[in-house]
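User: I'm curious whether this sequence folds into something compact or stays loose and floppy. Could you predict its structure so I can see for myself?
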Amino acid sequence: MLEKRHTGPFFLSFLLAFYLSTESVCDLSEEMLLQIQTRQFGAACPRVKLAPASATATKRSGSVWLRRRNWGPKCSVAAAASTAQLEVKSESKTKPFPAEVSRTLMELAKVGTLCTLTEEGLPLGTGVRFAVEPEHGTPLFCFSSSANTNISSSLHVQFEQFGLRTPQCSVQGTLTKPQDPKRFVSVWRKRFGEEVDQDSIYIIAVDRVLQLEDIQEDGVWVTSSDYRNAQPDPLRDSAHNLVTEINTNNMEDLTRFCNVYVDLDFLVSEAKMIWVDRLGFDMRLSSPHKGVFEVRIPFPREVTDGKGAKSTFNCMSQLAWEVERNFQHSHVPKVKELKPVRSPLL
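Assistant: Here's the prediction. I'll summarize afterward.
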């Protein structure tokens, strides 16, 4: 269960005052000061504008990250804030690029639809199991009978996220035999726990990938080089359990996040987390009068594993709790744009 540490600002104020009153403050790490400043004075998530449904997923907002540096000993908070240097990133990432999402989906899914053309030139799609070569994301198959090679093919893959969203991708390329089938045999064994003959291994040499955030939404084309060079999300194996845990045990926190981190002009009746990755998490919120919306809330910094995601969520929850009770000034950057969702499901 995610930890709730809603203890109020008093202990944090004492701790910060103690650090700032000692000569050893210069020896403190910058990261420790950033953590204290973040928890106590609301330097939370960077400002991010989410792309509406009609915008392409490759656009990035002009977000900024604030980073305070060169703290002196025995300095007051006001003086420190006035002399702080701001480190600005004009295009800070708050959402994985489509190539990374495609690689993640290929790692999470184990079945898809392989489409080829018949001798009559008609499209034919069949369900297949597939594995993914980890270095470049090449999809591979095991066929019991010999298949035609060097033919144009596509593999369609989708992954349902708690019945709320179904991201998908279509890998286009050439179905062929690999030059070194032995190394693909071990990939298949790791994926499905079974031995296969190397002569039954086939791959798709990827030309391009169509990435879609959900059903009935416009897709984004990913080049083969971007796909090969991207890395799947490090939280992919723990994301499902983490989202389940939060939706089960932290419902009040999710509703509070809508009030604190999102700029809303209506009352949220229900909120659920859809998915989480290294840069933040997606939520779906419902209003009885406005409808259903999807919103992206970024983490204040990138996480690399489930433990880091839990810790960051707890820190954001603590800050939101203090802001809601007026223990903190509500100077928290808010997400400005919502994405309307056609589906009424939540």
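Summary: The chain has two domains: 10-92+237-340, 99-229. The chain has a mean pLDDT of 78.
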